[in-house]
Specification:
The complex is a heterodimer. Chain A contains 24 helices and 16 strands. By secondary structure, chain A is an alpha+beta fold. In chain A, the strands form four sheets. In chain A, strands 2-1-6-3-4-5 form a six-stranded mixed beta sheet. In chain A, strands 8-7-12-9-10-11 form a six-stranded mixed beta sheet. A two-stranded antiparallel ribbon of chain A has the order 13-14. In chain A, helix 1 crosses helix 19 and helix 12 runs parallel beside helix 14. In chain B, strands 1-3-2-6-4-5 form a six-stranded mixed beta sheet, with helices on one face. Classes of the chains: A alpha+beta, B alpha+beta.
C-alpha cells in the first residue's frame, strides 16, 4: 500500500510505500499520526506548512458493512488545533481499492487564486495509481450542485469526487470538504473544523477518483475477516436501532429531536432553553409523515455510501413531490431549526441545501446564525432571513465573511456573551447543562466541541450501552474517556460510528469488529486492546494541541453555561475543573 | 402492529381540558398526559404527530401500568420520560405528570 503525496507548489506527486509504523493504522489513526508527525503545530492553518491528509479506514473498500468512511485531518483554521472530520462516501472505497492508505496534500502554489483538480485512476500497466493535475479555475465561484454534474459529465458517472465549495475559496473557518453520496449529490461532508479552507488554500479544488481496473483491498486472513464481518452484520441487522425499518432507517437521525426535547436538552434559540415548542414539527417523525403526505407513500431512508446496511440518509420533498434536499440530519435539523427558533421543515431543507451548495458545515452555520439572531441581525424564527444570511456567506459579502468565520468570531464581532463554543468550535445538538457527560466530551475532546468524539448520549439519554443519569456529573469523566478512546478506534476502522449502537449492546458485534481488523491486517488484537489503541490516537492528538499552545484553559465550558441555568431542569454546567482535567490526565 | 386496545384513552383537543377534567375526576383517581414517539405512535393514532393524549389511571399507577394499559409491547418500550426525566417501569406516577414513551432510537 502507498502513501500518495501531492505537492501543490509544483503540482508533482510521490508514491511512498507505507512505513512500518503506519502499517496497522487507518482512518483517524493515520490522519492524526501524519498530522502529528509532519505538521508544525504552530503553523498557520492556511499557510504552506499545513497539510491535508485524507485516509480510508482500515476496513474501507471491503465487504465489511458500513465501512465507507473517509477521515480527513489537518490543523484546523477554526480551532487552531488538530482536526479529524469524517464522512461516508464511495470516494474512500475507490482510494482503498487503488491501495492508497493515505493521501497527503502539501505545499501551496505561488499563484494566488488559481485552482487545480487531480484525477486519480489505476494504471494497469504500471500496476499503481496514476495522478493527473488539471486546471480547475472554470469550477470556482459556483454552487456545487451546478459543478458536480459538469464533473460527472467530463469524467464519467462512476467516478467519486472530493472537493471544496466557495466557503473554502473564501477561507472560512466554517468550510467543509464535500464528497458525493450514492446519487452523486454533493451532500456528504467532512464538515467540521474548516478543512475545506485548508484544501482550497493549497489551490486544490477537487480530487476525482476513478477505480476502474484497480485491484481492491488485500485481506491477510479471509476466513477470520469473514467471521468478523458476519458477526457485525448480525449485530446491525438485529439491533432495534440499526436494523431494517428500525429507528434510523425509518426516521433518520432526526428521530432524536423529540427525545432530546423530552429530556430538556434540545438547545433552543442559541442555547437559551432546553425545549423547543416546534420540536414535533421538525422531528424525524414529521419528516416521515410530511414525505408521506407529499409523495403518497411511505419513504424509507437510503444509504449515504455503498455497503451501508443501516441506511439512515433521508430526503425531503417539496409540496409537489420534487426532491428539495438530502439529507436533513439531526444535527442540521436542530442547528438550522430549533437552535434558530425555526419550525418549518421547508425552510430547514432550503438551509441544508444552501450549506451543501456553498460548502458550509451545517452545525457551525446554524450556531452562527443563532448568535447573529441573538445579536439582533435578524429575529429568532426568521426562516427567510436565515436563508438570506446563508446567501451572504455564499457571496462572500463582508457580513457573509463575518458569519463564515464561525460562531466564536461572529459572537466577538457582535459583542455576544452567549457563545456556545469550545476551542473555537461550536457545540452540537445536546445542551451540556442537561447532559453532563457529553459536556465533558465537548470540553476535553481534542477536536473542540464535538458530540461524535465521545457519544455519552448513548447511555445518558438512549439507554444504549447501559444507563446513566444525564443530570449527574458522577462517574462521567471515566464514561467520556472510555467513549473517546473507543471512538478513536472505530474512527480508525472505517466503520460508521453508528455501529456503536449495536456493538455496545451486542458483545459478538464488538468481537466482530476486532476480528474484521485482525483478518484484514493480520494483527492479533483483542477486544481489550480497542480502548488502548484508541487511546494512543488521542494521546497523539493531545500532544499536537499542547504544542499548538492548548492547556487546561482550553478544556473549559463557555462561562455562561456556569451561571445561566437551563430550563426546564434549571441546571448549570457544574462539573469541577479537576474532573475535566482527569479525562486526559488519567488516559 | 397491534391496534390500540379499548382502554380509557381519550385524545384531548386543545382547549377542552377544563371541561373534560371536571367530568373525568368524578370517575377516576388520576389522569396523566402522554406522548408516544416514533414507531409507538401507531398505538395512539388519534393523537397525531407530536400530539398529547390524556390517560386515566388508578391512583399510584406506575410507568409499567401505563405501558400495559396502552397495550404497548414491553420489548418495544425503551425509554420513558416523566416530566423530562427517564424513569423505570416501577416509577409511581402523579396526577398531571407529562409522560413521553420511546422505542429504541439512535442517531447523532
Amino acid at each position: 500500500m502507498w502513501i500518495l503525496r501531492l505537492n501543490m507548489a509544483d503540482r508533482s506527486y510521490r508514491l511512498d510505500e507505507v512505513p512500518a509504523a503506519y502499517r496497522t493504522l487507518g482512518g483517524r489513526g493515520i490522519t492524526s499520526a501524519i498530522v502529528c508527525d509532519e505538521v508544525p503545530a504552530l503553523c498557520h492553518p492556511l499557510g504552506p506548512h499545513n497539510k491535508l491528509v485524507l485516509a480510508p479506514g482500515i476496513l474501507t473498500g471491503t465487504m465489511a458493512p458500513s465501512t465507507a468512511r473517509i477521515s480527513v485531518g489537518g490543523k484546523s483554521p477554526l480551532t487552531g488545533g488538530i482536526k479529524e472530520s469524517n464522512a461516508g462516501s464511495s470516494w474512500p472505497q475507490y482510494l482503498a481499492s487503488m491501495r492508497i492508505k493515505a493521501l497527503v496534500v502539501e505545499g501551496q502554489p505561488s499563484e494566488k487564486g488559481k485552482y487545480w483538480l487531480v484525477r486519480l485512476s489505476w494504471d494497469a500497466t504500471a500496476k499503481r495509481p496514476k495522478v493527473e493535475f488539471m486546471p480547475a479555475d472554470e469550477y470556482t465561484k459556483q454552487n456545487l450542485y451546478d459543478v458536480f454534474p459538469k464533473l460527472y459529465k467530463r469524467f464519467g458517472s462512476k467516478v467519486a469526487i472530493a472537493g471544496t465549495g466557495v466557503a473554502g475559496e473564501f477561507g472560512y473557518g466554517n468550510a467543509g470538504i464535500v464528497f458525493n453520496d450514492n446519487a452523486n449529490r454533493p451532500s456528504r461532508y467532512s464538515g467540521r473544523g474548516g478543512l475545506g479552507s485548508v484544501m482550497a488554500s493549497k489551490g486544490l479544488k477537487f480530487i476525482i477518483a476513478d477505480q476502474g481496473g484497480a485491484p481492491g483491498v488485500e485481506v491477510a486472513d479471509q476466513a477470520l475477516f469473514d467471521q468478523g464481518r458476519r458477526k457485525m452484520v448480525d449485530a446491525l441487522r438485529t439491533h432495534a436501532i440499526t436494523k431494517p425499518q428500525g429507528g434510523l432507517n425509518s426516521y433518520g437521525t432526526a428521530v432524536l429531536i423529540n427525545i432530546m426535547n423530552e429530556a430538556g436538552g434540545l438547545p433552543t434559540r442559541n442555547f437559551s432553553t432546553g425545549r423547543f415548542e416546534g420540536a414535533a414539527k421538525i422531528a424525524g417523525e414529521a419528516i416521515f409523515a410530511g414525505n408521506k403526505a407529499r409523495l403518497g407513500k411511505d419513504l424509507y431512508n437510503h444509504a449515504c455510501s455503498p455497503g451501508c446496511i443501516i441506511q439512515c440518509s433521508n430526503t425531503w420533498h417539496r409540496p409537489d413531490g420534487e426532491e428539495h434536499t438530502s439529507c436533513v440530519e439531526y444535527e442540521s435539523d436542530w442547528a438550522l431549526g430549533a437552535n434558530c427558533g425555526i419550525d418549518s421543515l421547508d425552510d430547514i431543507a432550503e438551509l441544508v441545501q444552501l450549506c451543501n451548495a456553498y460548502g458550509l458545515d451545517t452545525i457551525e452555520t446554524g450556531t452562527t446564525l443563532a448568535v447573529a439572531m441573538e445579536a439582533g441581525v435578524i429575529p429568532f424564527g426568521d426562516g427567510a432571513g436565515a436563508i438570506n444570511l446563508v446567501h451572504e456567506m455564499g457571496r462572500g459579502t463582508p457580513l457573509g465573511r463575518i458569519l463564515g468565520a464561525g460562531t466564536e468570531t461572529a459572537g466577538r464581532v457582535y459583542g455576544v456573551t452567549r457563545v456556545p463554543t469550545v476551542k473555537g468550535q461550536s457545540m452540537p445538538a445536546y445542551d451540556p447543562r442537561a447532559v453532563k457527560g457529553i459536556g465533558i466530551t465537548y470540553a476535553t475532546s481534542t477536536m473542540g466541541a464535538d458530540h461524535t468524539a465521545g457519544y455519552t448520549i448513548a447511555p445518558e439519554i438512549l439507554s444504549v450501552g447501559g444507563k446513566s443519569d444525564p443530570l449527574s456529573p458522577e462517574g462521567k469523566a471515566a464514561l467520556s474517556r472510555g467513549f473517546q478512546a473507543t471512538t478513536a478506534f472505530i474512527d480508525s476502522t472505517g466503520h460508521c460510528l453508528f455501529i456503536a449502537f449495536a456493538i455496545l449492546d451486542i458483545a459478538s458485534g464488538f468481537e466482530g469488529m476486532v476480528e474484521e481488523c485482525n483478518g484484514l491486517l493480520g494483527t492479533k488484537w483483542t477486544t481489550e486492546d480497542v480502548a488502548k489503541l484508541g487511546g494512543e490516537v488521542l494521546k497523539k492528538e493531545r500532544a499536537f494541541n499542547e504544542a499548538a499552545g492548548f492547556g487546561p484553559a482550553q478544556d473549559r465550558m463557555p462561562e455562561f453555561m456556569k451561571y445561566e441555568p437551563l430550563p426546564p431542569h434549571k441546571q448549570v454546567f457544574d462539573v469541577p475543573d479537576n474532573v475535566l482535567d482527569s479525562v486526559y490526565g488519567e488516559l | 402492529m397491534a391496534p390500540c386496545p379499548p382502554c380509557s384513552v381519550k385524545p384531548m383537543p386543545k382547549g377542552q381540558w377544563e371541561r373534560e377534567s371536571a367530568v373525568a375526576f368524578e370517575e377516576v383517581t388520576m389522569r396523566v398526559w402522554v406522548r408516544l414517539y416514533a414507531t409507538l405512535r401507531a398505538y395512539l393514532p388519534e393523537a397525531g404527530s407530536g400530539g398529547k393524549t390524556t390517560v386515566e389511571l388508578p391512583e399510584k399507577a406506575t410507568v409499567g401500568d401505563l405501558v400495559k394499559q396502552l397495550g404497548l409491547p414491553s420489548d418495544e418500550v425503551k425509554v420513558t420520560f416523566v416530566n423530562g426525566r427517564a424513569r423505570s417501569p416501577d416509577w409511581v406516577l402523579q396526577p398531571e405528570d407529562e409522560v413521553g414513551v420511546f422505542p429504541p432510537i439512535g442517531g447523532g
